Amino acid sequence: MSIKHKLLFATTALAIAFAAAAGFAADVPANAPPAAAPAANIPPPPAPAPFFLVNDTSVSFTWYPSATDPGVAGGSNVVPGGIAGQSNTFNKYVGTVTHFDAWAYGTNFFNLDFLQSDGRDPTQGIPGARGAVEVYGFARSTIGGNAVFGNKIFSNLVFKDISFEWGGDANTENNQLGPEKKDIVLGVQFALNLPGTVNLAVLAYKEWNHNFFMSCGTGTANTPTCIGGGAFTGDREFQWIPRLELLISEPLTFLPWPITWNSFTGVNFPKGTGISQANLCAIGGCLSVSGPFTGTNFFTANNASAFTKVEVFEDNRLTLDVSKLAWGKPGILEAYVGYRYWYNKFGLDHNAALFAEFAPGTAIESTAYIGTTYHFR
């Protein structure tokens, strides 16, 4: 065997020997440390907290037997055979979708109502037509001061927390007045240091609206000629005003049944006419008893409703947790009874001739109601 072949043989044998040694060492490790004993009674790491601390979506149905709409006679002037000044209320059936959530820094609330009137509030005010339909959306959100600063700086004997609040409303309805409302709010919410939930919000409020109330000279059918010339389409932009909101939710734990008192109060201060000077003149607002405008406004002198008044909305209900009472699962099915009082509805003066004589009482709503809510869980 040549020297070259001897070297090749030796190299190959050495490689095989190393491979065998390596494989044996992998199978039977030498001087390996003993395996660690399993830890006893050590809990697993906690699961991460959910993004939403509270996440609730529900649907409701409510019946209001004595609803009103300002200027809608409720059967006295829109149903054939009706008598003016009588029967100015009507049934209103409301389906609602509501969502509420709470997260690390605040809360969100969204509410969408679908409102169906009976025939005494007919579509476009046409006698005998189907009842008008309205869609109304409402939203509020908050950012908590304590959460933002990471401490209890806003917690004391008076407050649990102070939050920044913002939101808005929007609606459309196909009744005689055809309102299309939009508004925004922003301000501060004070969570009062009281049992249950008591939140007082001090807000700035701005509203835009469009309806056919007092519109004239627009070239549309059945539209009266403007007293002062020109045209008024019904578009309004109201001034910024203060608004107050009070929300209360108190479980009545002294009762043998799972009942909660829920209350909401909203107060709007006078927001002006929402009508420009030119449009006010078009509908006769620049005329006085003595002739052309001399400083005495036509509507003020005649106590009409061009200038808005303080508006108060009050809603109180008692809610029974039916699912907890019936099968021990709280917060799924609820039933409620309540009472709503709405003074100077939409800010309109209830003493004005339109609301005191032609459609009396329609600028004030006073009605009991019943309803039920199902929460998706």
Structural class: mainly beta
Strand order of the largest sheet: 1-2-3-4-5-6-7-9-10-13-14-15
Instruction: Give the tally of β-strands.
Output: 15
Q: What is the overall shape?
A: globular
Instruction: Report helical residue fraction.
Output: 10-25%
CATH class (first level) name = Mainly Beta
State the CATH architecture. Beta Barrel
Integer average pLDDT: 82
Number of domains: 1
How would you sum up this structure in a few lines?
The chain has 377 residues and is mainly beta.
Question: What is the secondary structure topology, with strand pairs?
Answer:
Elements: H1 3-27, E1 52-67, E2 90-103, E3 106-117, E4 133-144, H2 145-149, E5 159-173, E6 182-192, E7 197-210, E8 235-237, E9 241-251, E10 259-268, H3 277-282, E11 287-288, E12 291-292, H4 298-301, E13 311-321, H5 322-327, E14 333-343, H6 353-358, E15 365-376
Antiparallel strand pairs: 1-2, 1-15, 2-3, 3-4, 4-5, 5-6, 6-7, 7-8, 7-9, 9-10, 10-13, 11-12, 13-14, 14-15
Q: Describe it for me?
A:
With 377 residues, this protein is mainly beta. Strands 1-2-3-4-5-6-7-9-10-13-14-15 form a 12-stranded antiparallel beta barrel. Strands 11-12 form a two-stranded antiparallel ribbon. Strand 2 and strand 3 form a beta hairpin. The longest helix has 25 residues, at 3-27. It contains 6 helices and 15 strands. The chain has helices spanning 3-27, 145-149, 277-282, 298-301, 322-327, 353-358, and strands spanning 52-67, 90-103, 106-117, 133-144, 159-173, 182-192, 197-210, 235-237, 241-251, 259-268, 287-288, 291-292, 311-321, 333-343, 365-376. It has one domain (57-376): Beta Barrel (Outer membrane phospholipase (ompla), Chain C). It is 14% helix and 41% strand.
